[in-house]
Amino acid sequence: MGKLRSKAGCLTCRQRHVKCDQVKPICSQCQKKNRPCIREDPSKSIRIKPYQPRKAGGDPKDALSHDSDEIYHPAEHRAADTVIANPTSPEHIPNPSYAAFGTNGSVTSPYLPQGSTNLPKLTNDSVPAPLMASPVNNTTNSPYFSVVGLPISHLLRPDSLSPWSAASPAGAIHAGSPLTYREAYLVHHFATHLGYWLDCTDASRQFTRKIPTLVKQSPILLHAVLSYAARHVGDAEMAEQAHERCVELLIPSLSSETVTDDDILLCAIVILRVFEQLNVMVTGSDQERHLAGCSALLRASQGREVDPSTPGLRQAAFWVYMRQCLYNACVHQQAPNVDLNLVLIPPPAGGDPLSDLRSETAWANTMTWICATVVHFCFGSSYPEPSSRIRRWQELSEAVESWLITRPDTFDPIWYSEAVKESGNPFPEIWFTADWHIMAFGFYHLARMLLAIYKPSPKFAVRGLHSPARESDVRVMMHARAICGACNSSPSTVPSLITLCHSTFICKTCPGFVWDVVTDMDRGSFDDRFGRKGWSN
User: Fold this and answer.
1) 370: closest CA among 299, 450, 295, 302?
2) FRET label pair with 366: which of 132, 156, 318, 438, CA 20 to 30 Å apart?
């Protein structure tokens, strides 16, 4: 059988139904017959075919040509300059030099070495801009299709603006270079395992749901996720490369005029902070560069109110930062680097599924905020006068108990039993149904424990770290056991193991009592759990 006629032959041969040898500029057939050799315009050869189901016995050549466009390029062979980013990403910023967030004052950038140029001081005048526009009303009645309210006829028009297109206000979800296999694996690992670490008080799981989609929009966010996930799975080389690349992209992006409104950039820095904490196992020290960077960005863009229901990614990132500050405050026995003069919005009432999620989130974050104020009272120096200190202690005690009384019933454990010595478990068994319930429970008992330790005495003396034991130590030990019991009953809730148990261990200000909690527990079991989670204890 002869060869089939090619579809790339000249139009003259096609019209005469003869085989064209495709010789350019004049094929053999046209040259022999002295005819004009007319070629098709290449721009008109690209056309979109209507969808047709693939037949089982399809042409292998079709499959080959289809697969040839999906070749993965390993990260080490892909030039950094070839990353196709969103036009608003840091890679498109014309001036890559170190620049300022704002225009007033100066503050040292946490991403510059000591002695480097100072960045102008941040201001509180800018209003945070939402990452994505609010969804419009849906035009369909189906409960299973509620993404955007665009008519089907509009979606079928080729010139219509798709919410997933690069020009869409929602951002270019498919705007970056295709992920390599390794990158996709790490992003998937973040989505299935690590996002929950950041969403432990967010019932809507915004980091878990949104970040894996947004990585194609922002190279900075992508490399932040890659560094975090690679460090967790033990790929040290990939983790360091991704972290270095992320910082390279991050520094020039600070010169953007819209940096204070960039929610994705804020999320990336929050994720980099987790990488920084995991990296302590390797470096042996915590430089807290990304924690300082997140603090500067938040203070530059935050208003005077804090919404505990986390309606957007910016608010979700703030509460991740809040918990990171709490961890550092307990580790270093210092006041958290948070502006506690902000006004906390009361939790919203529930009633429908969406409102219930926001209400659950708000109640968990409200307890986080109260705990932060307690930590600030205990380790800070804002109340040096004895009378003002005991008055503030009373206010905080009432706030903690008020939260316990007014919180929804869903925050109650579904099971509670005291410790049974014969069972080998020295802690009470406490079961919850959600991560944010466990975290709120832990922060409540941590606040109660610290208030008991730092309660002003009749002589208004603040309890020191190595002071002799007193009667209230029994209550301190009770709260410490409750924290460890909740963590022991829910080992998959990693933030409770890390933040709460570590805080309890490090706040061992009652040598004869609280430290018994540590010696009572199976240290080998807890060490093994922390090791499996990739965290140094």
Assistant:
1) 450
2) 132
Cα atoms in the Cβ-side hemisphere of radius 13 Å centred on 348:
16
- Residues 6+ positions from 134 with CB-CB distance below 8 Å: none
Do 278 and 330 belong together in one domain?
A: no
What is the extent of the structural domain holding 285?
A: 175-301
Give DSSP secondary structure letters for 19-87: -----SSS-HHHHHHT-------GGGG--PPPP-PPPTT--HHHHHHHHGGG----GGGS-GGG----T
Q: CA 293, CA 291: separation in Å to the nearest integer?
A: 5
Tokens 């432990």: give the residue: 200
* Same domain assignment for residues 187 and 227: yes
List C-alpha distances in Å: 281 to 274, 275, 287, 533, 534.
12, 11, 13, 12, 8
Alpha-carbon span 102 to 126, nearest angstrom: 10
Condensed to tens digits (0 to 9), the pLDDT of residues 229-250 reads 999 999 999 999 999 999 999 9
Number of domain units in the chain: 2
The number of beta carbons lying within 10 Å of the beta carbon of residue 282 is: 12
Task: Find the distance separating the first CA and the last CA of the chain, reported in whole Å.
Answer: 74
> Do the domain assignments include residue 28?
no
- 495, 435 in Cβ contact below 8 A? yes
Q: Answer yes or no: do 367 and 446 share one domain.
A: yes
Residue 444 within any structural domain of the chain? yes
Which whole number is the average pLDDT over 158-164? 39
> Does residue 105 lie within any of the structural domains?
no
Rounded Cα distance, 487 and 501, in Å:
7
Q: Report d(CA 146, CA 148) in Å as an integer.
A: 6
Residue 342 vs residue 1, higher pLDDT: 342
Length of the chain as a residue count: 537
Has residue 383 been placed in a domain?
A: yes
**How many Å apart are CA 45 and CA 299, to the nearest integer?**
55
Q: Are 197 and 494 in contact (CB under 8 A)?
A: yes
Q: How far is CA 268 from the centre of its chain?
A: 7
User: Do residues 96 and 252 touch, judged by C-beta distance below 8 A?
Assistant: yes
Q: Quote the tokens at residue 65.
A: 């040509």
Query: Are 329 and 477 within one domain?
Result: yes
The three-state secondary structure class of 6 is coil
